[in-house]
Specification:
Layout lengths: L5 H4 L12 H12 L6 E5 L6 H13 L1 H5 L1 H6 L8 H8 L5 E5 L6 H11 L9 E6 L6 H12 L5 E7 L7 H4 L3 E4 L5 H14 L3 E2 L1 H11 L3 H15 L7 E2 L1 H7 L5 H12 L3 H13 L4 H21 L9 H10 L5 H18 L5 H16 L15 H4 L6
Parallel strand pairs: 1-4, 1-5, 2-3, 3-4, 6-7
Helix pairs in contact: 7-8, 10-11, 11-12, 11-13, 14-15, 14-19, 15-19, 16-18, 18-19
Bound molecules: adenosine-5'-triphosphate, magnesium ion (MG) and zinc ion (ZN).
Amino acid sequence: MSYQVIARKYRPKRFADITAQEHITRTIQNSLRLGRVGHGYIFSGLRGVGKTTAARVFAKAVNCSRMIGDPDYLKEITEPCNECESCRDFEEGTSLNISEFDAASNNSVDDIRLLRDNVRYGPQKGRYRVYIIDEVHMLSTAAFNAFLKTLEEPPAHAIFIFATTELHKIPATISSRCQQFNFKRIPLEEIEGQLHSICEAEQIKVDNDALQLIGRKAQGSMRDAQSILDQVIAFAIEQEDDRTIHYEKVAELLNYIDDEQFFEVTDAAAENDPKKMLDVARFVIENGYDEQDFLEKLIEHLRNFLVVYNLRSTRLIERPEQVKERYQRDASRFDSSIIMQMTDLLLQAQKELKFQFEYQFRFELVLLKLIGIVHPVGSLSSTEGEGETPEKKKPLIKN
Ligand SMILES: Nc1ncnc2c1ncn2[C@@H]1O[C@H](COP(=O)(O)OP(=O)(O)OP(=O)(O)O)[C@@H](O)[C@H]1O
Ligand SMILES: [Mg+2]
Ligand SMILES: [Zn+2]
């Protein structure tokens, strides 16, 4: 059997399996029940959050024989049956009632005219022909205009679904003729949950922390999460009889900088310890990590402290439990205005570093400046650790 990537193998076949987009699937199912299906829809949102998937389930549902012929089923279940001939044609990719059109590569007026001519023909079987127009924001203005009339007076059998990651690029003339659905970024727990079920189905054992790491890397996109999982499986599973994935392997593959390094930075700042700070800088440079990326993550690390100060809880920190506890503990070493100043410095540095030579030297300098924020030159800050020698309390860099 040929190998199928996870994202395709686990593409939802029913509305109920589409995670985190209930606000959309519920509305569509209601309109199906009421027989009030529109002709134009815009599905917008981040890559890999279910736009094409929802469009395909929708197309399958409006043509499903069971949905059309069995009013009780329609009312109570409102899902494509996945068993009738039409549903099977959809699943096998042979249905003529769905056309997917990639507007990124077919964006001229001529392409749209072809599509427009095609739209005139009704379905041979089933009820509707559904046109999914992907990346619709890539159409030229002329192409959009060529489409307006069709959208204004669509044939009764046609449904257009415009999918886009950039809603603001769609002209109002088009969007005002459509129902708009904004797909959400998928919350981390739901991505973790989905990855967990997939691993179970694939008979793979995996640490929760490893799944969390993959989920975080995906930043709200389910497809990204699934692609990373594919990669992780290929990397971490060496023998068929030991299908286990450990956190360390995932961290290694994703070139993940462990939280420890970021705590070292805040420790060094709290303890007025430039040597410790320079050790972190050396670690980053020697291991070939990207300095910009490190700063980005360091900002997120500081943001986690701000969460503790502002919410008095670690609920919104996306980290394993023991790391959350450490945030809680370490928060008392600073106050929120210090953390804000550190964040400002890093945001500024991030902008400036892009245009600089002597990158590594400047990177070290930025980290050292963090110490200066906690321990301003000439002051004896009250946040300094107890029992330190007076020697150590002196402002840094003498040599
Ligand atoms: N909400 C979701 N619930 C479950 N699986 C999902 C969801 N969103 C995406 N996926 C998974 O990711 C894959 C890709 O999703 P889909 O093609 O629907 O993304 P998309 O929003 O159309 O992205 P793009 O903007 O890149 O076209 C699906 O095959 C499915 O496995
Ligand atoms: Mg898509
Ligand atoms: Zn069916």
